[in-house]
Specification:
- It is a single chain.
- The protein is built from seven helices and seven strands, in the order βαβαβαβααββααβ.
- A seven-stranded mixed β-sheet has the order 3-2-1-4-5-7-6, with helices on both faces.
- The relative contact order is 0.19.
- It is α/β, with parallel strands linked by helices.
- About 40% of the residues lie in helices and about 15% in strands.
- The structure holds zinc ion.
- Zinc ion binds next to loops.
Length: about 240
Amino acid sequence: MDNFDQFTGPVLCVAAHPEDIEIHAGGTVARLVRAGIEVSYVLCTSGNRGTSDLTTTMPEVGARREAEQSRAAATLRVDDLTFLRHDDGDLQYVARELRAEIVRLIRQIRPHTIITHDPFPGDGSHDSCAIYPDHLTVGMVTFEAAFVCAPGPLFYPEQLQEGLSPHKPEQLYFMMSQHPDTFVDISQVWAQKMDAVQLYKSQGRHLPEVEPFFRRIAGELGGKGRVDLAEGFRRLVPS
Ligand SMILES: [Zn+2]
């Protein structure tokens, strides 16, 4: 089962941190670009607290991780990146501002599909990363922005006065879900995905060491999707 044919227009990926997209959806992005579908990224933070180094600073960490993110996106042939530069770990406290920013980007980019974090990933027992508050916040805010605010003319009417118009995406793809129901076969783009992931040296993503870990996850998802290697998502369409 390969649900790739559900992508029929521009795709916006909204993630909390650098590397979230490549790790959980990098193969899907590679396929989208190969199919000629426009892909844009929004990074809500630059991961500027993502270090255990006692000698560095938030600006240094953020700059390094933005550079890694830009290179990884370029590896997948994506060049439309927006860095919102909220502080890593604080997203739940800036959700109001974040919502307005994401609505604006949805009205500008006008995506058919949004790939983002799952705000209801499951019980969290499998992976504490899935219930990290930054991820949950981005998932919920993006869901709200996509299906409630961006289509509603009375949300942020100043954006309409600037020339933007309401927009409602056709579907959301939630990554990092404990209950994936939608699968993308990434067997043919596995090497390209790993080329992107291994650029995140600041996060210890060195090849060949990390390849078996990610291959095991892709293989498990592939088992559920009845393909070799897959990325898995939970799909949500507007009611
Ligand atoms: Zn993350």
